Amino acid sequence: MLKLYYLPGACSFVPHVALQWSGLDYVAEEVSRDKIKSAEYRSLNPQGQVPLLVDGNWALSQNIAIIDYINDLAPDKGIYGAASATDPKIRAKARQWLAFANSDLHTKFKPLFGAARMVDGEAAQNNLIAYASSDVENTFASLDKMLAQQDYLTGNSISIADVYIFIEMQWAQRCKIDLSKYQHLTSFAQRVSADNGVNTVLKAQGLI
């Protein structure tokens, strides 16, 4: 049986949803920040991060790798979109947006979560946070414009890339970045949260 280690509301939310969509047998175990830095956990993932997927005596880290593996195990479950099993262009677009969420946008949050580790002094930290907040908001503003034309990142069906953007919207809220003025983005988040698999994982992780 597959086992996913996760931190509630972190990027590990995304493969948790992929597993829920997949219909595969799995268990999801919440871990603490102390746990993922332990020697026991680092023996499975030396980076001391989530997500971590264990399949028997085999371990796999990194979001995109884990999601690809789940998709390979359940290729007909639409993890990259409703028609992704038969359309390589749809899969490619979903992976494009997944990579964007995992690298481009995710990276922009690092100063918001750890300014004190990056620069010294309260003034410098506040300036870094202000800059990063503006950068994150501008990125979401561009997504809002795109979502004026379609319901989801790849068109009219949800994919796992949408789930990543959705959880990053929750991070923005935690960082006091107001996205409520972006109407299309707000509607998008409502559509994603209404998905059965997403809703199940939101409850399982104690996020609603």
The first-to-last residue Cα distance is 27 Å
Shape designation = globular
Mean pLDDT over the full residue set:
97
Q: What's the helix count?
A: 9
Number of strands: 4
Strands in their spatial order, largest beta sheet? 2-1-3-4
Indicate the radius of gyration in whole angstroms.
Answer: 17 Å
Main β-sheet, in a few words? 4 strands, mixed
Unreliable stretches (pLDDT < 50, length at least 5) are none
Which structural class best describes the helix and strand composition?
Answer: alpha+beta
Helix-strand topology string: EHEHEEHHHHHHH
Helix content: 55-70%
Strand-residue proportion:
5-15%
Secondary structure elements and pairings:
Layout: E1 2-6, H1 13-22, E2 26-30, H2 39-42, E3 52-55, E4 58-61, H3 63-73, H4 88-108, H5 110-118, H6 122-147, H7 160-174, H8 183-194, H9 196-204
Parallel strand pairs: 1-2
Antiparallel strand pairs: 1-3, 3-4
Characterization of this structure:
With about 210 residues, the protein is α+β, with helices and mostly antiparallel strands. Helix content is about 55%, strand content about 10%. It has helices spanning about 15-20, 40, 65-75, 90-110, 110-120, 120-145, 160-175, 185-195, 195-205, and strands at about 1-5, 25-30, 50-55, 60. Strands 2-1-3-4 form a four-stranded mixed sheet, with helices on one face. The model has no long low-confidence stretch (mean pLDDT about 95).
Considering the chains and any ligands shown, give keywords for the structure.
single chain; 208 residues; alpha+beta; 4-stranded mixed sheet; 9 helices; 4 strands; globular
